Amino acid sequence: MIWNETKECMSRDEIHNMQGARLKKTVSRVYHNVEFYRKKMQQLGLEPSDIKGMEDLHKLPFTTKEDLRDNYPFGLFAVPQSEVIRVHASSGTTGKATVVGYTRRDIEIWQECVTRVLAMAGIGANDKIQVAYGYGLFTGGLGLHYGAENLGATVIPMSTGNTQRLITMMEDFEATAIACTPSYLLHIAETLEEAGKTDKIKLKVAICGAEPWTENMRKEIEAKLNLKAYDIYGLSEILGPGVAADCDAHMGLHVYEDHFIPEVINPDTLAPCKEGEVGELVFTTITKEALPLFRYRTKDLTSITYEPCECGRTLARISRFKGRSDDMLIIRGVNVFPSQVEAALLEMGETSPHYILIVDRINNLDVLEIQVEVEEVFFSDEIRKLESLTKKIAHVLQTALGLAVKVTLVEPKTIARSEGKAKRVIDKRKLI
Amino acid sequence: MLIKQLSVFIENKEGRLEGVTQVLMEHNINIASFSLADTAEYGMLRMIVSDPDEGKRVLKEEGFSAKLTDVIAVKIPQKPGTLHEVLKVLFDAALSVEYMYTLATAGRDTSIIMKVSDLEKALELLKENGYAVCTAKEAYEINNNSNK
Fold first, then answer.
1. The domain containing residue B79 runs over which residues?
2. Cβ B10–A411 below 8 Å, yes or no?
3. What is the CATH number of the domain that holds B128?
4. Most C-beta atoms within 10 A of its C-beta, which of A126, A272, A320, B115?
């Protein structure tokens, strides 16, 4: 069903005008409350009054993850701390996390967006949904949780890490919906198959996201579990899950344009792409109070269309993601930058800076192995010492990345030194 | 007296062990004795060779992680209980053995290579208790029948 028909089915003109008006208000508020943006606008010779509507959007400066890091932790917040009721955090490119904040109103808008996603997938008050995204600083768990509660569904807050318990409850509680990463759902499907339990479960809908997947993977999930699977997209900087999602037509993900203005740009020239042309997705938030961002560069590659959808919604649609314009990896839903690994290793001071990340998908679960070269300085002839070094590296990396890591010591100079930019990642995962 | 052991880190990869022996052969370095410890991902090859410094140099040149480690070689007679007696001397003094292996000899006596937590103290204790240790020259040249 369409949860909020007034907002999801407006005419393009109405959307355009609403966005223009909200943008204008946002710019003025941000200019007066966020020093970073005020300075940036002053450098560009921009006054808040120069932004009169959507036609002036392109005049605003871009924002990057580095800007969030430079203003760590709360430097870009546009409200006093007393109005912030929650923070979340995701991976930064090095050391420090990217921190985001929400006012009460922000949380309400977030849950409204997730509710629209769930309703669009046919979930309602009679459903029991297992939320199997991580709960905590990661936006996945709590984001889906609040949206599902707002919808009136029965929430089973599983979080991650215990597949057997998840399956037992899925069966015993007769769960009808699940929210998790698509690769984890495939793993669950195979575990059910092995236990001969596929027929016993009552799942009819899956909301999958937090990592890239393909149309074929969706079909495989649907066939294996006899349910309908939908794609949900989001990023903590803009909101969390619920920025966009696909409908029954599966012809792209609808963006909630009454809260976010999407743009697609050429990542090299920064010029706008034509409708349908692949480029980097950029968002401007127009209702966020705690952390409003202008033209935030997501680094996700996609294309956009404004054609109305057969489902009746008029919201712009972005295509399935084609990759990233940076080297970020998504491993078990966790964002990982190779630079985080490098920073952690250098900080330890006992390892060489020569390392390589090998990502693989074994039984549909992502596995991260990090190979580190053994250098003379920390090479020991005692295996006990090498093993404790391995454990120490694994611990340091696990803490830095928030992800279990297998560390393997390798001989010196066996990791290829490429000319120019070093090749730091071997991704063996094949998206079917 | 302390002996220099040549230790090499070897990844569990086809041909790596052979690579080490080939480099040593090409430089006419004799392996008097060795032990190979293995883990799931790598092995540790520990050797007593005819010329440890040269061995390390040539292996490093070929890109191996090679290192010299000080060890001792205790001579013990070939009869029941002798190994136990030596170890007892060390353990009673609260020393611990990191690893040990035999120095191959064809004669009546044998020698045990040991890496002990405190090498100097171990040498002292062994001397007090009447044990002989190999000199470096003895250890390096043992079993070396090459016409060098």
1. 71-145
2. yes
3. 3.30.2130.10
4. B115
Q: Which residue of A has its CA nearest to B116?
A: A382
pLDDT digits (tens, 9 = 90+) for B95-112: 999 999 998 776 667 889
Q: B41 and B15 in one domain?
A: yes
Same domain (yes/no): B32, B91: no
Query: Assign residue A167 a region: left if phi > 0, alpha if psi is -120 to 50, beta otherwise?
Result: alpha
Within an 8 Å CB–CB cutoff, is residue A414 touching chain B? yes
Q: Which two tokens stand for residue A35?
A: 């020093």
CB contact under 8 A, A409 and B7: no
pLDDT in tens, A70-123: 999 999 999 999 999 999 998 877 768 899 999 999 999 999 999 999 999 999
Option in A379, A384, A413 nearest B63 (CB): A413
Q: A415 contacts in B (CB within 8 Å)?
A: none
Domain-ending residue, one of B69, B104, B121: B69
What percent of chain B lies above the pLDDT cut of 70? 95
Q: Work out how many CB contacts closer than 8 A connect A with B.
A: 45
Q: What is the pLDDT of residues A337-365, one digit of tens each?
A: 888 888 888 888 777 667 899 999 988 88
Same domain? For B78 and B53 the reply is no
CB neighbourhood size of B77 (10 A): 9
Residues B8 and B61 in one domain: yes
Residue A420 has pLDDT above 60, yes or no: no
Residues B50 and B75 in one domain: no
**Cα–Cα distance list, A106 to A102, A143, A220 (Å):** 5, 12, 36
With an 8 Å Cβ cutoff, are A412 and B65 in contact? yes
Domain count, chain B: 2
pTM of the shown model: 0.81
d(CA A312, CA A304): 17
- Indicate if B76 and B141 belong to the same structural domain: yes
Minimal C-alpha gap between A334 and chain B (Å): 27
ipTM comes to 0.80
Tell whether A377 is within 8 A of chain B (Cβ). Answer: no
- Whether the per-residue pLDDT at B148 is higher than 50: the answer is no
